[in-house]
Amino acid sequence: MEYVPRERVRLLTGVLSVVSLAVVFAAAGGRIPASSVPAAPEWVIDVIPAVNAVISAVAIATIAVGWRAIRRGEIGRHRAAMISSFGLFVSFLVLYLYRLTVTGGPDPFPGPDVVYQFVYLPLLAIHILLAIVCIPLLYYVLLLAASRPVAEIPSTSHARIGRVAASLWLVSFALGIVVFVLLHVIY
């Protein structure tokens, strides 16, 4: 198996994080023209939030499976679950950014102003903050795992950083589902 060069893990983490966050902020800020992505029927655009809520729920399950597997010493199962979780995260992000680009930005909150100010906005802010913090943590633990044989991983900060990343990731996905329910189900 070919490994990522060990001395490049921090550099690659930084580069991938900056590029990823730049794309996210560009899409959220309406800086990516809708003409730069393929057009989709309106029903596809409308169903993306629900699909992303399902992806988030499945990702919560795969993160939990991965966490449980590593606690039991099931390294192969842990690896499969966490790679699946990352794939789900990427799928979520691609769909979310596509929708933002096509629609020109996030949906306005249709509910009462008091719910917007005291419930929706704080939940959304925490969700976004955790998602931003998770990106470099996830890249770092994935690159650490990719840069070493399994026997060497325990001598790295993979487990310590991975616990933090998984915890924040779980909360971010859960809050994303709550934001979806507030934005698309309740109101």
Automatic annotation (TrEMBL):
Q: Does the keyword Membrane apply?
A: yes
An example Gene Ontology CC term for this record: membrane
**In terms of domain of life, where is this protein from?**
Archaea
Q: Does the keyword Transmembrane apply?
A: yes
Q: Which Pfam families match?
A: DUF420
Q: Which UniProt keywords apply?
A: Membrane, Transmembrane, Transmembrane helix
GO terms in the biological process aspect are: respiratory electron transport chain
Which residue ranges does UniProt annotate as crossing the membrane?
50-68, 80-98, 118-143, 164-186
Could you cite one Gene Ontology molecular function of this protein? cytochrome-c oxidase activity
Renumbered to this chain, the signal peptide range is none
Its protein name is: DUF420 domain-containing protein
